Amino acid sequence: MWDPELAELERRRELAERMGGAERVARQHATGRLTIRERLAALTDSWQEIGALAGRATDGGFTPSNVIIGRARVDGRRIVVAGDDFTVRGGAADAAIHEKQILAERMAGELRVPLVRLIDGTGGGGSVKQLEDHGRTYVPYNPGWDQVVANLGRVPVIALALGPVAGLGAARLVTSHVSIMVKELSQVFIAGPAVVEAGMGESVTKEELGGWRAVSAAGTVDLVAGSEAEAFELARKVLAYLPQSAWQPPPVLADPADDAGRAAPELREIVPRDRRRPYDMRRVLDLVFDTGSVLELGRRFAPSIITALARLDGRPVAVLASDPRVYGGGMTAAGADKTARFVDLAETFHLPVVHLVDQPGFVIGTAAERAGTIRRGARALAAVYQSTVPWASVLVRRVFGVAGAAHRPHSRYSLRVAWPSGDWGSLPIEGGLEVAFKRMLAEAGEEAAALKAEIAERLEAVRSPFRTAEAFLVEDIIDPAGTRPVLTEWVHDAYATLDLGPNPAARP
């Protein structure tokens, strides 16, 4: 009875599968990029499209909408996916794209499942050519942006830049918990080279303007992949650390391969006695957390601060640390921003925080003052002190000043242990001595050097971390080799106390 309509339905579905047509698909492949349907097949175990019939019918033909959405499974977990189809109008907006994007956002948020955005194009209002078609302009607005923002507090949002991404597409990319781009294949910018040249008189290539080197160093993206396949694998890895939603705990591996009680004797030798010498903090992470589980985010941005996802006895945790090879591990203005955002991620998805502390304090100097380091540093301090997730701090070496005070939320219980290499205070003795004893040294004249050495020797005598432990100003000093067993014991208690649900302390 309904054979004509069913035949038309099948015809339209087949036309939608062709996307922008053979010529434009070939053009997409010629740039080294997959089509959106190939991407969805590569990312997911399976997926079910929603809204395939949205688009514009023409005489004897059909142009599909240039965004594809659907429900999917990734490693068995339910997610929502939304992807731009660059073969149809370069991924720019058409009559149906807004409603489909909004539906994907609302669906993920209300079904309480992660959202993955595959972004390739502007995703915005399109070209000025359309003004003649419409016969008018419009006042800019972002339809459904309330859903985009709300999802930051509800469900994990992973966004991938898989081609040139500009304008609203770039905004959709960064309004996520973790963003990923592909070397040489994708670029991210507010406006492309032609617009920049016309508006600013600056002639640059796409790669110079928004290539992976510039964008990852600016902190615009969190991860950089060498290929689309690697980008999809990174998306799957990130999802494996995060819960389905803020109402659920992070996923725990049922049978972790690593030994929870594994000691690491190498840690006893890793911190040099010479306090001016750096060491490899990432090696510390590898030895402490489950083998192969450390996934660093934002490595090229604010590199003195390390942020990573990892596991302890199969349980996901958020890891903060400093890299003493960059500014001695000191906190920069950008490092403060990086810290605050990462703590908010942990807070949103109930990830216990492990902080491996070697913090000499804020980076100082005129450049630091021009960057507003103290204001942005205070914001990081607020994020730490407002956090409610379980927290463990391991004082590896230095803990100095206001930045050092951000090593844990002091107003509530947290696990805190120190290594014998611990060194802390308001200022390092090396920098604070001359300030504190300035007048005395000035009056000493030719004896100033000898007096300075004598004062330094006296201060060194009280510098021992055991003096601090005697006063119970640090709870425990441990053998570095036993750090992992201490933390794996703690993480079981931490997971038993998680307070699930959207967290008002977490900021989008």
Automatic annotation (TrEMBL):
Residues covered by the CoA carboxyltransferase C-terminal domain: 259-508
One Pfam family here: Carboxyl_trans
Domain CoA carboxyltransferase N-terminal residues, every copy: 2-255
Highest taxon above the source species: Bacteria
Alphabetized SUPFAM superfamilies for the sequence: ClpP/crotonase
PANTHER family recorded: PROPIONYL-COA CARBOXYLASE BETA CHAIN, PROPIONYL-COA CARBOXYLASE BETA CHAIN, MITOCHONDRIAL
Protein name, as recorded: Methylmalonyl-CoA carboxyltransferase
Lineage, uppermost ranks: Bacteria, Bacillati, Actinomycetota, Actinomycetes, Streptosporangiales
